[in-house]
Specification:
By secondary structure, the chain is an alpha+beta fold. The chain has one domain: Phosphatase 2c, domain 1 (4-Layer Sandwich). Helix content is 33%, strand content 27%. The chain is built from 6 helices and 10 strands. It has a 5-stranded antiparallel beta sheet, covered by helices on one side. Strands 2-3-4-5-8 form a 5-stranded antiparallel beta sheet, covered by helices on one side. A hairpin with a 2-residue loop joins strand 6 and strand 7.
């Protein structure tokens, strides 16, 4: 299989960009050393224009450098890259006290012959679109899942759950300290031709998953560039008053 990718970003209703994303080729380990991996990382900063943008940029830079320059199995490389990205933020905060409190979410994914593997911290989603269905692959480390559980149990209404301002509070992030929650793929998820995998910042949550699926299906044949542009166009068309930055990395699986 071959992996074709595209990345796009919008500022939304903000006048600054705190998201960062990058894609790069890396060597495969062991018996698959002849087949390169595609490594993708996306980070959503927090801490304002200066701190958030710096945190997400540092995290992406150090994550990809660590992953592409290390050897060993993919899960170990993903973990090492995550830790080094977090360490980079810690050093920056230690050198400049004004940056105290900056941080970011992060999702890193590696695509290769065995499929896709990932590590993530925070609420940046990783979606798989396959044969007319969409699935969230990673855990959401915001309060949204806990609030939705209260609604599902009948303790609050779904309307109250969707309007709760705490939905976007993070339970885990890269801040240079301990990461309370880390989501890891337990094994490679095999991919099939025509699969589409999407890494996104939480600004994408303006769209329901059914809307994301519809946009992907309508543009899949045209390629990942068109899918990425259509997703962000749909976010902008929703006219959310407080629309957050939104970034997507779209990876399409093609027969080699």
């Amino acid at each position: 299989m071959a992996f074709v990718h595209a990345a796009r970003a919008i500022k939304g209703a903000r006048n600054y960009q705190e998201d960062a994303a990058e894609v790069r080729l890396a060597a495969s380990p062991g018996a698959e050393a002849g087949a390169p991996l595609l490594a993708a990382v996306l980070a959503d900063g927090m801490g304002g224009h200066t701190g958030g943008a710096l945190a997400s940029g540092l995290a992406c830079k150090f994550f990809l450098h660590a992953f592409t320059s290390s050897s060993g199995n993919v899960p170990a490389r993903l973990d090492e890259a995550l830790n080094l990205a977090n360490d980079a933020i810690a050093r920056e905060v230690a050198e400049n006290s004004e940056l105290q409190g900056m941080g970011c979410t992060l999702i890193g994914a590696a695509f290769g012959p065995a499929g896709v593997e990932w590590v993530s911290v925070g609420d940046s989603p990783l979606f798989l679109v396959r044969k007319g269905e969409i699935v969230l692959l990673n855990e959401d480390h915001s309060l949204a899942p806990q609030i939705d559980k209260l609604a599902a149990a009948g303790k609050i209404s779904w309307e109250a759950a969707r309007a709760d301002p705490r939905r976007h509070y993070l339970r885990s992030a890269l801040t240079g300290g301990e990461m309370e929650l880390i989501d890891r793929s337990r094994r490679p998820l095999p991919l099939e031709p025509d699969d589409i995998v999407i890494l996104a910042s939480d600004g994408i949550h303006t769209l329901a998953q059914t809307d994301i699926l519809r946009v992907v299906q309508e543009n899949a044949e045209a390629g990942p560039d068109e899918v990425a542009e259509a997703l962000l166009a749909a976010v902008e068309a929703a006219c959310e008053v407080y629309q957050d930055n939104t970034t997507v990395v779209v990876v399409a699986v093609r027969p080699d």
